[in-house]
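EI: anyone free to look at a 142-residue chain?
SC: sure, send it
EI:
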Amino acid sequence: MARSKASYKAAAKKAAATRRRNAVSKRRTGTTARKTTRRRRTYRKKSKSMLSEMFNPKMAQAGGKAIFSGAVGGMGAAFIEKLMANQDNNRKLLVTGASAFVTATVLKMPNVGAGMAGVAIYKAMEGSGMLADDGMKLQEYR
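SC: here you go
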């Protein structure tokens, strides 16, 4: 449906009135007007307890994932120990340590590699007699 000439004129008048209303005044005054300062809202910060600052759900989830990854690494090291049952302990330690390094760097799983390295260090300390709390000596270990 075609618009009439009168409706175009009415729309043009309305647009002109809007432009005049929104136009910036070009008249200069003798004094510069000072902007009114905007008041800032003041609010009281909600106090948190000490426990909520140290422990939140995100941190709990991240910690759980790290612990689980380390446990998976420990299981991997135990699997390597079972595979190399008839090898000497030095070779087992070397292979477990190397696999921990490869897992952490090449496979980009540092927590799993740390779990494997933890088992390797534990076995090395046990073999050297550093963990001989029950009187077990190095000669008895071999």
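EI: Helices lie at 5-22, 50-54, 57-83, 89-105, 110-128, 138-141.
SC: 👍
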